[in-house]
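FAQ

Q: What does a record look like?
A: Structure on top, sequence underneath. For example:
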């Protein structure tokens, strides 16, 4: 009986993760917690214990894109990675790293290219963009560090190769330790331009 209950719980978690993935992809919801809550409301699930974790939802997003995105998803992902590589060349003096959905393959039409760049001050990045004639808008992002505290980082959003790029600025020594991923709580995966080139060769 306990085994049946467990399998029913697992099934409920899977269905909820799939619905959350559909909400994320179809409606452009970026916050996994919000997508999870919306999915729970739609399916009439109230128990917090049966809600899937972020890693389960990320896996469901990847599966959803694979099943329903097909060739168009692959083409979009390729174009976004090409744009990422080109933007990284643009900002090469700040040792850029690609992070997020474009890196892990869960990017959709609502995603942006997320870069981490490293400089003595955000103003240096802003000046470089301005010198290149790139129009940008500043933003701030709060990210959790390994000390389990939230730090605020400046960033700049601009369009490049018809894709929105967000470059979040870290101190120069911030390249040694990535902030925690909101998905699984582990250090964010980062890759340099060579890593992006390898991804493009294997897509």
């Amino acid at each position: 009986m306990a085994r049946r209950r467990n399998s029913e719980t697992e099934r409920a978690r899977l269905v909820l993760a799939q619905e959350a993935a559909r909400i994320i992809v179809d409606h452009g919801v970026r916050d996994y917690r919000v997508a999870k809550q919306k999915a729970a409301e739609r399916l009439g699930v109230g128990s917090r214990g049966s809600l899937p974790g972020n890693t389960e939802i990320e896996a469901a997003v990847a599966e959803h894109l694979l099943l329903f995105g097909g060739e168009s998803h692959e083409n979009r992902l390729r174009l976004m990675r090409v744009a990422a590589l080109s933007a990284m060349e643009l900002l090469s003096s700040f040792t850029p790293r690609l992070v997020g959905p474009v890196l892990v393959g869960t990017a959709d039409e609502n995603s942006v290219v997320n870069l981490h760049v490293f400089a003595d001050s955000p103003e240096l990045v802003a000046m470089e963009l301005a010198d290149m004639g790139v129009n940008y808008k500043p933003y701030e992002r709060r990210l959790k560090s390994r000390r389990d505290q939230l730090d605020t980082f400046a960033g700049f959003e601009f369009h490049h190769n018809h894709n929105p790029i967000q470059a979040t600025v870290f101190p120069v020594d911030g390249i040694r330790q990535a902030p925690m991923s909101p998905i699984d709580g582990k250090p964010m995966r980062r890759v340099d331009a060579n890593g992006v080139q390898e991804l493009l060769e294997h897509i």
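Q: Is there anything notable about this one?
A: The two ends are 45 Å apart (CA to CA).
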